[in-house]
Design goal:
Two copies of one chain form a homodimer. Chain A is α+β, with helices and mostly antiparallel strands and 151 residues long. The first copy, chain A, folds into two domains: 4-44, Arc Repressor Mutant, subunit A (Orthogonal Bundle); 58-138, Alpha-Beta Plaits, CATH 3.30.70.920. Helices cover 38% and strands 30% of the residues of chain A. Chain A contains five helices and five strands. The first copy, chain A, has helices at residues 4-15, 21-28, 32-45, 77-89, 114-123, and strands at 48-55, 64-72, 93-99, 105-111, 131-145. Chain A has a four-stranded antiparallel sheet. The longest helix of chain A has 14 residues, at 32-45. Strand 1 (48-55) of chain A pairs antiparallel with strand 1 (48-55) of chain B, so a sheet runs across the interface. The structure holds a DNA duplex (17 and 17 nucleotides). Chains A, B: One of its GO terms (biological process) is response to amino acid. Chains A, B: Pfam families: AsnC_trans_reg, HTH_24. Chains A, B: This is DNA-binding Lrp family transcriptional regulator. Chains A, B: One of its GO terms (molecular function) is sequence-specific DNA binding.
DNA sequence: AGTGAAAGGTTGCTGGC
DNA sequence: GCCAGCAACCTTTCACT
């Protein structure tokens, strides 16, 4: 599916996010036309999902990040689907993973401050379908979070 | 620092990541010149950190994501600093947060497969400075992970 | 602080080789 | 894979509200 040149392109896109296609091609050892064609192909294949702007949460007034592990009281497909559908609608839940272990879902939640988180927990999160036990861990500091994959 | 127009611009950038500045301005209710000026200002202020390409981990051969909670055996500044410095060098650790609770750090680790994760855990992670107890939770499915903030 | 217009350079994209 | 060329966009500035 992906050859060595494709991987070099992906690495260049990750390392030089603002670079032009010509620069990416140079970093990958090809000229800009085949580079552009490969990028488009990888976009169509879904390898490259898109580009996203990265904001500083604190600068936007979002000071609190919490990792909340969540259990459901049922584990049939309907319960999981209902939970995931409703969780997907809540903007404060920025990430949601189905996980192994004692809990069912790992959620990353971002809010303005602790008061907003408490309100969110009590009025929104605990009212999601089939939610049972929850355990929250507050993030004190973001040590590393650049969205870079080990390609 | 940020007024209502700035927030509308950030929302537009998040919702339409491929849009031109003119389109973003239209979505925010202003024309392209002040829109461009505001974007540049927010970049200089660090509100907008940059743009990052998003890849499908599975398509690149990265099939395993694990959330690993980690304790240190010491909690002075030197120990935290040493751990964070070395953890930052490991590409497989894509996110690292200092957290409250029973554990000290929450790590998100991405590897090719379970075997690669086991090797990483035994030869890299457990050799980081001052690492004590660890607890790993395997991600079965990515329900939501779009990097969008609740602006 | 906003609008509208315009110039120049760069980029994205399509062809032919 | 490369080269040439075109249309579109971004950047920047200017005059004006």
């Amino acid at each position: 599916m992906l050859d060595a040149t494709d991987l070099r392109i992906l690495r260049a896109l990750q390392d030089l996010p603002e670079a032009s296609i010509e620069e990416v091609g140079r970093a990958a050892g090809i000229s800009h036309t085949p580079c552009w064609r490969r990028i488009r192909r990888m976009q169509e294949e879904g390898v490259i999902r898109g580009r996203a702007y990265q904001f500083d949460p604190k600068a936007i007034g979002l000071g609190i990040t919490v990792i909340t592990m969540t259990k459901l009281d049922r584990h049939d497909e309907a319960a999981l689907g209902a939970f995931e559908r409703e969780a997907g609608k809540l903007a404060e839940i920025v990430e949601c993973y189905l996980v192994t272990g004692a809990y069912d879902y790992a959620l990353k939640i971002v809010t303005r401050d602790m008061e907003a988180f408490e309100t969110f927990l009590k009025t929104r999160l605990s009212n999601l379908p089939h939610v049972g036990d929850m355990h929250s861990t507050v993030v004190m500091r973001r040590v590393k979070d650049d969205g870079r994959l080990p390609i």
